[in-house]
Amino acid sequence: MTPAQHHYILFHKPYGVLSQFTGQGERQTLSQYGPFPPNVYPVGRLDADSEGLLMLTDDNAVKQYMLEPRFGHPRTYWVQVEHVPTELALRQLQKGLILEGKRTKPAAARLLQKDPDLPPRPAPIRFRKNIPTAWIELTLGEGRNRQVRKMTAAVGHPTLRLVRVQIGNLSLGNLASGDSRPLTNAEREEIINLAGRYVHKKPRRAP
């Protein structure tokens, strides 16, 4: 199958939906959305309680490229947290934290000056009258399990809502929750070219 025959899709994963097509109890999965072409699968994942940008494709070269840790593909999140983070807390996120015995890589972190324009979440955010909340933008170059939530908790600001808005140069934009769109020609060409270079440069195993 040539790149022109592959599918490359951006999907706005809603809260509570598993990043998979197969069922798991009564939880919603990607199969409730679409319809998607056969044989496409998510590149990476978002936890069920996280929302936002998910890429689906049937191009294995692109999947391998996007998941290769050494490229450190930046992933940007909007994170609603308890309390308003101080400059010290933001610097700690930026410099890296020790999580489970290993330091996180440097990240970009900033306080958003106003709440992002997002639809209400189906499951309401827990609200405590005497605890203010704030939104931060956090960009990571790695993807450990539940890393964003662990990082904000480590600096004293538990995550209340988590939305991924960008993967590399691919952006959520105005894509509504539960909706999907194919990559534009420019997006498609860029990611295919980058993945092609990666595949050709992969070290070969010794015979």
Can you describe this structure?
It is a single chain. The chain is of the alpha+beta class and 207 residues long. The protein folds into 2 domains: 3-69 and 168-201, 2-Layer Sandwich (Alpha-Beta Plaits); 74-166, 2-Layer Sandwich (Alpha-Beta Plaits). The protein has 4 helices and 11 strands, in the order E-E-E-H-E-H-E-E-E-E-H-E-E-E-H. It has helices spanning 60-67, 87-95, 147-154, 185-201; strands spanning 8-13, 41-42, 51-57, 75-82, 98-99, 102-103, 108-111, 133-140, 159-167, 170-171, 180-182. The strands form 2 sheets. Strands 1, 2, 3, 4, 7, 8, 9, 10 and 11 form a 9-stranded mixed beta sheet that branches. Helix 1 crosses helix 4. The two termini are 27 Å apart. The mean pLDDT is 90.
